[in-house]
Amino acid sequence: MAKIFCIANQKGGVGKTTTTVNLAAGLAKVGQRVLMIDLDPQGNATMGSGIDKRQLETTVYDVLLESSSVAEARVKSESCGYDVLGANRELAGAEVEMVALDRREKRLRTALAAVGAEYDFILIDCPPSLSLLTLNGLCAAHGVIVPMQCEYFALEGLTDLVNTIKQVHANLNKNLQIIGLLRVMFDPRITLQQQVSEQLKAHFGDKVFDTVIPRNVRLAEAPSYGLPGVVFDPAARGSQAFVAFAQELVTKMLPASAFAPSAPAAPAPIDLPATLQGADGGLQP
Ligand code: ATP
Ligand code: MG
Prior knowledge:
Bound molecules: adenosine-5'-triphosphate, magnesium ion
Number of domains: 1
Structural class: alpha/beta
Radius of gyration: 18 Å
CATH architecture: 3-Layer(aba) Sandwich
Distance between the termini: 27 Å
CATH superfamily: P-loop containing nucleotide triphosphate hydrolases
Helix content: 25-40%
Number of helices: 12
Strand order of the largest sheet: 3-4-2-5-1-6-7-8
């Protein structure tokens, strides 16, 4: 069965979509079967996977409203080597339309059950908010990958995300774990970034992925060609880092202990530095 991961961070512009499409392409490159789900009405992950969001007849919106199955709504990205359940502006309406419906936060989870056996990984690109759309992603997932830039405010925002994940874990999805924090857009020439990066490692230990994604202009250029950097320019430093990250993730998932849907584990403790903890006084589950 597929391992289902949300790429989430309620901060905008931190590299969620870049991580989702490049990780999807990187996983495909190392032989994994991947479905990429765009849960953001901006549709950036759809366009960045070579699928024109304006041409899509069925999207994740139809899946959430149960007028289409995942199998009917997904499309294959030939250039990228993975399947795409796309999104466009229509998805913004789903938020309002779902409010009155039952099981509104579990609709994606229910829909994915039918295709889980067809993939090794399902990656969900979340919007920059802790909305009903993100909640659908978190309810459907086994884990969360948090891309973050190495700066002080990134750490501060982490508190809200961790609290949301804790609440979803407690009330809606006992399988949900934080898989890890991914340092992105990293520039080693900036001393503060180096310091925050070291702090992250010191505080979160193996919850921080070893792979670091550098700031690399080729990754920023790739979406305008409708491709992830990994496909657009495989030799670029940023692309190589994402393939290395895909390999790290596959390796991390290999031991049975890292992924045990039959025996739901509490999310591994994730502790913030005391100065960053929220009013609830702590982040241990
Ligand atoms: P949103 O919150 O709006 O969904 P996001 O978190 O998905 O944003 P991205 O769209 O992935 O963030 O990235 C924001 C911008 O930073 C984009 O222009 C992207 O091309 C650029 N970018 C992301 N990662 C890198 C990188 N490693 N090097 C250079 N530019 C990057
Ligand atoms: Mg995005």
